[in-house]
Specification:
This protein has two helices and no strands. It is mainly α. The protein has one domain.
Length: 90
């Protein structure tokens, strides 16, 4: 795996993990706390920097697992029972 491919994979993994982590700890504003013109369904404290930090750590772990699976190849495609037989053409 080249470093550009690794970087691209990390970028995609980071965004997927971010969307999984964004709902953590979200609490909607109550009717008494809503500022004028604000949406009552908006989060009271989104904690975006904290969520981005957690996303970076979790994405790094997932990315390391992916890199290990690609480089070490502990499981090959031929080991998976549900994969069709490609012969020598792949």
């Amino acid at each position: 795996m080249t470093w550009t491919a690794g970087l691209a994979i990390y970028f995609v993994v980071w965004w997927i993990v971010l969307f999984a982590i964004l709902p953590w700890g979200v609490r909607a504003q109550t009717t008494s706390e809503v500022p004028a013109g604000g949406d009552p369904g908006a989060p009271a404290a989104p904690l975006l920097l904290w969520k981005m930090g957690v996303t970076t750590i979790v994405a790094a772990l997932v990315w390391a697992l992916i890199v290990w699976l690609v480089v070490a190849q502990p499981v090959a495609i031929d080991d998976l029972p549900f994969m069709p037989d490609f012969g020598d053409g792949y």
